[in-house]
Write a structure and sequence with these properties.
This is GHMP kinase. Keywords: Kinase, Transferase. With 309 residues, this protein is of the alpha+beta class. The chain contains eleven helices and twelve strands. It has two domains: 136 residues, Ribosomal Protein S5, domain 2, CATH 3.30.230; 125 residues, Alpha-Beta Plaits. Helices cover 37% and strands 26% of the residues. A hairpin with a 7-residue loop joins strand 10 and strand 11. It starts with a strand and ends with a helix.
Length: 309
């Protein structure tokens, strides 16, 4: 059995999506697959490969009266990071068993995950895994996400999409709708990797310090920008909207904009995507900006047409 989910980029409403702001989300052309095979050994053999077909994680899990345990001799290494990944796998398997009502260790399975993108890019290594597992076990991916990685759920919605969507989280309900987002100026939009994977906890902590009234105003403004971006038909207006969005989130987080911090001399517009400070940024340019960013040490510059599904 093989399952597949595309990756994701959050174009608008970073942080504010946690409180119900409407976000524009784009599934990516590259994603992650999950291949499942019964082994009848009563164990789960887990192997994860990167975009170069290289094994980046491997372990075996057994279950006894004390719970699920890692069989350390199957690990690639005994590093602290490796142990953390094993612990996360155990958490996921435990939640998946609970939600599905299945006893996965009665038969045992070989699980293979295969990425199409660099796992440091922040395109959804975790969310594509959760969605693939949910497809296999026929469980609610949002509930599985909440029991494991948490988050707003927009990445799960993207993992289930084949075109741009809007996403809102309202109490215990997720609203995902197809968005008619086909910018005629997409050849002027690029995505640049900032050479580091960003943990969003710091930004979320800053955001949570905002008063409720401030957050409600922010949610309304950001949601309006999402709708205006979808309808936008020229690059100048698009630039204006993403600049306004950057100013709003910068104020909410009390953090400098990425353009101010890293690219003050850049002529086009720049917008952070997802967690501020890492992963990808979206930039606009009248001409191919690859040389500009490479001269500053940022080698990964991907045109819209090559990134977005």
């Amino acid at each position: 059995m093989r399952f597949y989910s595309p990756g994701k980029l959050l174009i608008t409403a970073e942080y504010a999506v946690l409180d119900g702001a409407q976000a524009l989300c784009l599934p990516t052309k590259k994603g992650q697959s999950l291949t499942i095979q019964e082994n009848n050994l009563g164990v789960i053999n887990w192997m994860s490969k990167d975009e170069n077909d290289k094994i980046w994680f491997q372990d075996q899990f057994k279950k006894d009266s004390l719970g699920i345990k890692s069989t350390s001799e199957y690990k690639i290494s005994e590093s602290e990071k490796e142990s953390a990944i094993s612990a996360r796998c155990i958490q996921i398997i435990t939640a998946a068993e609970e939600l599905s009502g299945q006893h996965l260790f009665e038969k045992g399975y070989d699980i293979l995950t295969e990425l199409e993108f660099n796992r440091n890019w922040g395109l959804g290594t975790s969310s594509t895994l959760i969605n693939n597992l949910a497809q296999w076990l026929k469980i609610d991916p949002y509930v599985l996400l909440n029991k494991t990685f948490k988050g707003s759920g927009y990445d799960i919605a993207c993992a289930q999409a084949d075109s741009p969507i809007t996403y809102e989280r309202k109490k215990n309900t997720q609203i995902s709708l197809k968005a008619d987002f086909e910018p005629g100026f997409s050849d002027h939009i690029y995505f640049v990797y900032l050479n580091q994977k960003q943990n969003s906890r710091e930004g979320i902590a800053h955001y949570r310090k905002r008063t409720v009234d401030d957050r409600e105003i922010l949610i309304e403004k950001v949601s309006n920008i999402t709708q205006q971006l979808i309808k936008c038909d020229n690059l100048a207006e698009y630039d204006l909207l993403i600049n306004i969005h950057e100013n709003l989130i910068s104020k909410a987080l009390n953090l400098p904009k990425v353009k101010t911090r890293l690219f003050p001399d850049y002529e086009g517009s720049i917008k952070s995507l997802g967690a501020w400070g890492g992963d990808f940024i979206m930039v606009t340019a009248k001409n191919d900006p690859t040389l500009y960013f490479k001269e500053k040490g940022f080698e990964v510059v991907i045109p819209y047409s090559q990134m977005i599904l």
